[in-house]
## 1
Amino acid sequence: MNLSVKIRKNLGDFVLDVAFDTGEGVLGLLGASGCGKSMTLKCIAGIEKPDEGRIVLNDRVLFDSEAGIDVPPQKRGVGYLFQDYALFPNMTVAQNILCGARDKDKTAEYIRRFDLVGKEKLYPAQLSGGQKQRVALARMLAAEPEVILLDEPFTALDNFLKARMEREVMNVLDGFGGPVVFVSHDRNESYRLTDTIAVMENGHIADLSEKHELFRAPKTLAATLLTGCKNVTRLKLLEGGDYMAVDWGIRLHAPIAEKVLAGQQANRSEDGTVYRYAGFRAHYLVPVEPGDKERVQGKENSGSSNLLICDILREVEDTFSVVIQFYQKGLAERTEYSLLTYETGKEDWARWKKQCAEGEIMLRIPDDALIWMKD
Amino acid sequence: MDWYPLWNSLRIAGISCVIVFFLGIFFAYYAARLPRAVKGMLDVVLTLPMVLPPTVCGYFLLLLFGVKRPLGVFLMRFGVKFVMTWYGGILAAAVVAFPLMYRTARGAFESFDENLSHAGKTLGLSNTYIFWKIRMPACKQGILAGTVLAFARALGEYGATSMLIGYTPGKTATISTTVYQLWRTNDEAGAFTWVLVNLAISTVVLLAVNMLESRQKTKTW
């Protein structure tokens, strides 16, 4: 079971150029709106035609520009769930499900399975959002697709409904054996529903990894930002293999292995550095006891590595946590990326502030929390 | 009283309305898909009859289909003559009513949610099925409105009709040309009768439209 996609299409503002294999499980396409992820789905479904490339679904060639193959959407066996469900407004629930059904006798079964009994004769305009999605799912499955494409199905929903709809979609995906591509701009949603994630930016894939790996160590700046990392900086290589975080104004302690890499000319990019950006997630910071400052500095043995002294701009209270926005104390030149965020529990923060009432608030970036990016 | 003008007007309006219905939908559907520049040009040509005085349309029709013009001569070989015949009225009415159907239908098609068509395709539905069972029903309001407007316009056509087919009692006379003819010949009572007939037909048409609309509202979509 596999969907293999390798396509190119000029979209005017940028060129869509993506290649991926879904393999088993759910592949997520994560990216900001207008990055080409929906267009990718439309090319797979055959609604849009790529300029060149090849699309193969379970050994069946759907599109091949060189061989001149372009299977019409009707014969591709693609199940497409649209953002607004695209139910036919002039047809009842039953007619919507029946019209594309491979086996007309099974319609009643789908109506039962998706809890639509008694709603058969209603029109889409008479249904709630949840019911609409269930009709769309039933209609899609009744056509017995070989691949399922989900195009931001939860975007327009409120949080309560979203959680319920997600469960329903998960149920459908669990029972579906074929490849699934899930498009979203929401990192949490993508994380919950997929196994592998391709991060898209301006028409190309910035990173494609297993989801845990992607969120732990994204490979590019675009992927880091799209996976929700709020703290990033440009880097400057220092003597001895450590780095200067240009935007934050502190030294960063490069892992031993990276120091070795930096020493090898082959690994350096043109300007002599191995890594160009670094980042860390807002909740990975560790508070430093006032008395520990010397000890931390001593351990790092290279000035105040990884140590942030907070010049707090504001504290933003969230539902269950508090987000502290701060600059490094004494930072000479503030840039777009200089403002750092630290997220922690409300009680923890209150206690910590009390403890540091006299002196400065200090936070340390653990070595393993740092994300290193080559581009 | 001779009821021929009523019968003639109804058949001219009815037949031209059917022709305009299909032609209007055809052009509206394909114009919505054309590149912008071509679409603009086509739009101008197809909408001109709506803004030109009907007599100018009639003039152009005579220029094309006049018995001494090449096209008119050519058609005469097949025994088809649009000048001074009742079915010439169909041509005149169709030309003048066409833009109303075309523009209203195009507006309806342009506001159609293309995702419905995309969804239909991925479900394996044929393009013909999608057009007649999904696109047309979704655009029903606009298409119905266009049809009614076209019918009403065809029924009330005077200028182009009188230029092309003139007024021959019992042959080419329509309600509108009869009203003018009777008024011109000081038969005020006769003219008034036909005015009442015209009013009656228009009222029936508008009532029918309102009934259709209210029935649709109870269907909730």
## 2
Amino acid sequence: SGKLMTSCYPDHVDIDSDHTDPQLCSLYAADIYSNLQVAELNRRPFPNFMETVQRDITQAMRGILVDWLVEVSEEYKLVPDTLYMTVYLIDWFLCQNYIERQRLQLLGITCMLIASKYEEICAPRVEEFCFITDNTYSREEVLKMESQVLKCLGFQLFVPTTKTFLRRFLRAAQVSYKSPSLELEYL
Amino acid sequence: MEKVKDWNYKVVEKIGQGVFGEVYKCLNLETGKKVAIKMINIQNEPEGVPSYLIAGVSLLKELEHDNIVRLLDVLTTGRYVYLVFEYLDLDLGSFIRKHTITSIRPHIKTILSQILVGLAYYHSHNILHGDLQPSNVLIDLKSKKVKLADFGLTTSFGVPHIEYSYKEVGSPYKAPESRIRSSVYSTPHDVWAVGCIFAEMVSGKPLFPCGKKDHLSLIVSLFGKPTKETWPGANYISDLLHSHPQCEPADLAEQLLGLGLEPPGVELLSRMISLNPTTRITARNALNHPYFKDSHSSLSSPHYEAFGFP
């Protein structure tokens, strides 16, 4: 029943025209993505939180933290969505809460714990996140931070990240390929 | 539960016991409005806030629609999480049990269309309901509004989404494809459940009752033995089907017509419970079905009109 919808541009292929695979959700795809774009704008962290909210940490420290979290996500074989979400949770928390540099790494692993619980089929355990910090923080500290982050976000964790849109853009970009590029597929 | 006093709620009575916790009917002392508060104990969770709660609550937070029960607030103490929902007096299951099919008949279109509007909203927000059944469809008699309730089984799906390993939950509203391990678990699954609910409103009894016979046998006795054509995924469960005797499909259409369902209604239902998920109608397309065409004026909900479909 997949009939090509008429596109406004004659040379463009409508990537939502395949209605035979329910997993592509082609009938809802356009709506889903327009809702995601609204959500993205609503939930964008303020770009100037480092100057306005934070006094003890710097951009450079945030950069080091994110680089380290990339390594942690590789170590525990986490899906990319978890990593993207972790960074979003950190930024969102930092927009609204002052934090001392000694606790920045605690915030980092806690956000990764929360994102793992949201995204992963099997999230690493709290102990594993403590271990990766050389046990700088205790289980109790992580769990307390978890409830603080969840409270700050009001449990509203869902956010479209770069990864969310990348998936669709890649689908559009690959439409003229005869077979999908594996490198792009696994991005 | 005493703790909710601190947030200005008064407990009226316990109304339910779910898998994940107890549900209480409460009164918001500031607004005077009734709410349902679900209390979830997390003090014995070694890994902190459980993942089903993190994923479930954040999805519920995304759902803001007139035909969906609203999650009003999330309250936390170290030991408990309290989910504060809108309260509605009646669920569709009790409504069907308490009324005769002739008295339900005039309300079917209104109820069904509101269920579909709510479901189309779920699906256009990348969310599956996953547990639609009459007890999860709530009715406000005064405003004649129908709202989908959900207590934590929703699943977010990507476009396209990674295959979702489906946990077998014994519900008679599950679509047949959910019986196939690692099968496509997507929006058609919810539409099947709406089809079952539709049939139940017409006949006054579940389409696939729990109990005596297993779900698959019931499906086989209704549709006849599936073939590659009627159900392309059926070869995955051919072992299971092998033991089933060949049988003629039951004439459901005849039965439903006999119960007073108009022919367009029978047609719509057959498209909702199509065995093949890829040919099953979507919630949005179902709303444009001729069955609803003559009913615009009689629908009491203005939201049906407000929720425009291209």
## 3
Amino acid sequence: MEIDPLIFRLSIFILSIFVGYYVVWSVTPSLHTPLMSVTNAISSVIIVGAIIAGLSGNSESIFNTSSIFGFFAIALAAINIFGGFLVTQRMLAMYKKKKKDK
Amino acid sequence: MLSANLSAIFYLISGVLFILALRGLSSPETSRQGNLFGILGMIIAVTVTFLSIGNFSTGFIFVLIFILLGGSIGAFIAYRIPMTAMPELVAGFHSLVGLAAVFVAISAFLNPEAFNLGTKGNIKLGSLIEMSIGAAVGAITFSGSIIAFLKLQGIMSGSPIVFKGQHPLNALILISIVILIYMLCASQSSNLFWILLAVSFLIGFLLIIPIGGADMPVVISMLNSYSGWAAAGIGFTLENTALIITGALVGSSGAILSYIMCKGMNRSFFNVILGGFGATDSSSSSSNKEQRPVKSGNADDAAFLMKNASSVIIVPGYGMAVAQAQHALREMVDTLKKNDIKVSYAIHPVAGRMPGHMNVLLAEANVPYDEVFELEEINNDFANADVAFVIGANDVTNPVAKTDPQSPIFGMPVLDVEKCKSVLFVKRSLSPGYAGIDNDLFYKENTLMLFADAKKMTEDITKNL
């Protein structure tokens, strides 16, 4: 009997939760704010679904209700991707070590 | 056109890069590289999606236009946002992830052929379940984050909004969501789909309104988690590994942060979610409010105390963010250091309005991160320090949490500020903090209250040093 592909996806999902658990516990508390902004940015990989939705129109009309929702989702996710990564970059650039000079 | 197997491998790679992006955050040195991994993962995911669709017609141009449109808005916000507004920004971003998930789900529901999910009115059962869960969680994330945003921005009052029958109503709505998903899967009716979305938006709104301002760290972390689960739900629908991995990562990340925040307040998650902390306890504290003597001083006294100290610990809180006092504070510390006074910073886990809020503000003011310590790292040092300078923090320094089992904050880990030889407490008035209880620290023999705006007081002290 063949295994349903869903089970494989479920396995990836469950294992990723564990990976996430250990990786996030090792994040230093002082970087919790950048952690939130970067998770924000990466969860916007949902743009992948938005692009499929946006391109779902046929050759006669690119715009149908479904693809319009897709285009909006693309814009929303793009705000998050650019905003999230850039603001994280901006924050991380501020974390500096003590200067050695005395 | 990219084969399905090859693109699946690329999605896996981008998922791994996202894991590395989070891994990088284990120390500030590796964090910047981690962020680049994240960006690379995103570029791979988007490119692979384009290649696997392989349709570079007019639609493609529109996709690019919308990416550029959103991207420039995002970039503009990222560069302009002041660091003190970070909690609002993150809440706002969460709402966008939620809404994007809802839109993708709607799109997939209306045009399942494009996603390979069957035909309209006859969507594969598994996909429909995943899709409706993703949409419902996305909708809750959206409306919940909007409320969190409005509260943080001050457009909506930060005090909890509670009404009779609130919890039964919420429970009823949550149960109805489950029933709606079940009915939707049985009937494939689009009306039920819209009702499900509407009800989910409603519950997101209702869940967040009873939660007060200082509990926002938990709320933001929780919504962070939700946005991850929503993404994962959509990931299952689209059979996309990158999305599933990311959703799981973000979901567990937010859950861990919520747990850390709850532990920082010694409250259970449900206690926070059910809300109304300040509202229920204010009565008990007002009854025993007798007038107790307080020593108050001015900038000159404070400067004198600090000048004669050999070590100073600074305890910042949300008040510092409100007063934008972080730069003035760092200038004061620079002057202290010139006088060979050892200075360190003590950060309570729930200081501020989001996890790590104080650390970012201090980093912005050029405070080196190795001078900033977490509660467990520094709590023993208070006994050996000469001066504790409390600026904008309150409940997290309240010794009552250790001594009075009747107190609503009893058991909460607090900074042992009172063990210092002297305590300087910058505050505008004697009003109680968020928990609605009096701070015993105000009345201690070794406490000097500095009644002023945090920024102004810090500047005045620097002048007097």
## 4
Amino acid sequence: MSRIAARFKSLAAEGRGALIPYLEAYDPDLETSLALLKAMPAAGADLIEVGMPFSDPSADGPVIQAAARRGLKAGATLPGVLAMVAEFRKENAETPVILMGYLNPIEAYGYDRFCTDAAKAGVDGLIIVDLPPEEADVIEKPAEEAGLDIIRLVAPTTSDERLRYVLSHASGFVYYVSITGITGTRTASKHDLKEALPRLRAATDLPVAIGFGIRSPEQAATAASIADGAVVASVLLATLAETLDADGKATAETLPRVLEQIRDLAAAVRADVPAADQTA
Amino acid sequence: MADPVEHGITANQANSLRHGPDERGHFGGWYGGRFVAETLMPLVLELEQAYNAAKADPSFQKELDFYLRDYVGRPSPLWFARRMTEELGGAKIYMKREELNHTGSHKLNNVMGQILLARRMGRTRIVAETGAGQHGVATATVCALFGMKCVIYMGATDVERQSPNVFRMRLLGAEVVPVTAGAGTLKDAMNEAMRDWVANVADTYFLVGTVAGPHPYPAMVRDFQSVIGEETKEQMQAAEGRLPDVVVAAIGGGSNAMGIFHPFLDDSSVRLIGVEAAGCGLDSGKTAASIERGRPGVLHGNRTYLLQNADGQIDEAHSISAGLDYPGVGPEHSWLSDIGRAEYVGATDTEALDAFQLCTRTEGIIPALESAHAIAYAAKIAPTLPKDTLLVVNISGRGDKDIFTVAEHLGVKL
């Protein structure tokens, strides 16, 4: 069983959903982001998304754009991101790591070689924002051979008919983009999420994680209870950005503040009864 | 005698270069495509259906023809450039006068087609990206004409160097949003327009200005621009009784070039030359020549030649012309380059400035800096060609917007 499947299975047995925090590789530098990655499981991360910085993140809001710029400025490359995951895997064999990013750096790396190297580094799945199933033939075969899941995004605009098509190309889990928009902007209401989930459940047996616009512990708890997981990204990157000095360098506050926020999110997700809903 | 028919197409059609892209939106099986976030996929598919339906509806073409004639001012003339021809002493130079269109460039051909389509689709809000501001002005113009809300994304650098066009757009009622990300040029404006679209899917139509982006944009924009080449073919027939020998056009995203090339793709005697902006020189590291100095990759919804580093990060382009300052190119051009049907060359900032003055001085036509790149290459090869060679250069826009930039480079204070 893959790490991703094993993790969702054990969480289901616990009767709770997953907290899936996001970090941008090399933000604001390799050392800090690697230390953050290593500390995330103990802070309550059940799965981790690692952003691969790209020069033109056209589906992302200002917060992730800025993080990607910091990462690139710090020298992020795809081989560097894979080396970072490999370093993490020396200490952690259980927590699934999903790489999230855009297609062009992967195409430049070479699809076969990338899938082989990513699996070797200990990557479990890929989310490629600008690769719809219509174009995914370039990577599906090498990913499957390497044992990498291709995690599919589905959106409120995805029709029932299209949902079946998209999910026929999905593995690992399904990432429900809960709003129409870019990352870190709007937030879906509990009502909207409750309406959306049965449609997804009817179309797939894969676990469903909700992302885009989850900011507070309450929202994370709601999403993780309605679905099987909550992805939290922009709000963590915003906290990280707040702790940087005037030159954009990490400070003594950077790691503690981000980890504290993850602990708060994890506590809410793990609470027996989800905290009072503030989004309905 | 009828052609044998297979899969609904005749053998003659199958041999044509004019039937791309395939149903996935790929040119030559690799370039183009639909590389967008899932949120946008249903919209892109809906657009394709709506465009196909419009294309098959004679009333749509009739409506478009009406606006092209009475509002845009088509057909545009094909002008024999006598003094430039004499000065250069070689090929007979004709100019396709797209700068005479309403709003001063070829951009309105495409914008008029897409705004009619957006209206058919019931959209009420238009977003667009712009580099030099020509596409932004054209879009703001049709939005004023039809009373639609209009938001134009423009790189902050371009807002500065194209201030007359910014003022025009605002007069026309558009909201112009300066984009400060990256180098603040066309690439960054395109990113921001895509972000707007994904956040406002219900009422918004993304009016792409060039033959790039996810399928069906490259094919649709090409179709709307092909009126340039179709007219050129007829006009040259009337003037000289035959096809031109050489057609030269400037390339940023490549819509004016695709528009004039496409009707000639199957006429193998016609040399098609796309002139990219070489900036400070093809090997200076400050260039916008995506085909000559880039390699294939994926950006802004399509696979095409891109200026990028070894890690697949997109480079900043450089050109004196804001309209050509883009690190990619339309996917059909990438394919035409690979199969050798069209040639792609470069003209530098300096060559474009020289050509800008040559055209103004000899023909009394102030060309856009974009078009000046095409003129520069035409002027370079014309003297090497026999006097009976018919060379058409596409004057895609007029240069009034560029006089400040040109004055600055010539050391003149306005």
